Amino acid sequence: MNIDAECRPMFLNAVAERLVARRRWLALAAGRLGPAHHGGRSGFAEAVAGAAQTSGGRGLMGARLFQLADPVEGALPIVVAPFRAPALAFGPERPAVLVQFSDPDRPRATALGAAYGLSAGESRLVEALLGGASLSAYARAAGVTVNTVRTQLARVFAKTDTARQQDLLIKVISELPAMK
Question: Which end of the chain offers a freer environment for a tag, N or C, measured as fewer CB atoms within 10 Å?
Fold first, then answer.
């Protein structure tokens, strides 16, 4: 989806419209988009402001990853990034912000494995990271040691050409919507 510097929607795709309508993770209040629940509101607004400044040529913020919380659904990782909106027939280019996330209702593990050549265990690890799990929490839930999880993560980094968890999640979130 695209929003302007004041968090007003410019474009919402079908997934974004569904989440906003259900007030799952994201909601509209007074015509402005923001987290549906109190946790993360300031972080979202700060990320949007920084991305809009960069989009307008006045800042240096790159893509930023963070989690939106829903008390029932859990965490949804999102990427907030600068986006230069094209000029409309009646106006100039304007600063905009890209808010990107994968469809939380669509199973991702199979798509992850196919897209990056990940094993089932590696796919489950990435899925857990997308859901906001820490390495130690995932290790406990999977019944393995943290060292085993770190080894899996190193293999995931190699297969996805990334070196940090944030870069991995940004890549997966950015590319996952295109995966069938």
Answer: C
